[in-house]
Amino acid sequence: MKSITSSANPMYKELKLLATSSQARRKAGRTLLDGVHLAQSYLQHVGLPALCVVSETALLNAEVASLLAQCEAGAVKCVVLPDPHYHVLSQVEHGVGLLFVIDTPKSVVPSALTQSAVLLDNLQDPGNLGSILRSAAAAGIKQVYCSGGTAFAWSPKVLRAGMGAHFLLEIFEGVDLAAVVAHARIPVLATSSYATQSVFQADLTGPVAWLFGHEGQGLAEDLLQLASQHVVIPHLGPMESLNVAAAAAICFFEQVRQTQK
Amino acid sequence: MKSITSSANPMYKELKLLATSSQARRKAGRTLLDGVHLAQSYLQHVGLPALCVVSETALLNAEVASLLAQCEAGAVKCVVLPDPHYHVLSQVEHGVGLLFVIDTPKSVVPSALTQSAVLLDNLQDPGNLGSILRSAAAAGIKQVYCSGGTAFAWSPKVLRAGMGAHFLLEIFEGVDLAAVVAHARIPVLATSSYATQSVFQADLTGPVAWLFGHEGQGLAEDLLQLASQHVVIPHLGPMESLNVAAAAAICFFEQVRQTQK
Question: N or C: which end of chain B has fewer CB within 10 A?
Answer without folding.
Answer: C
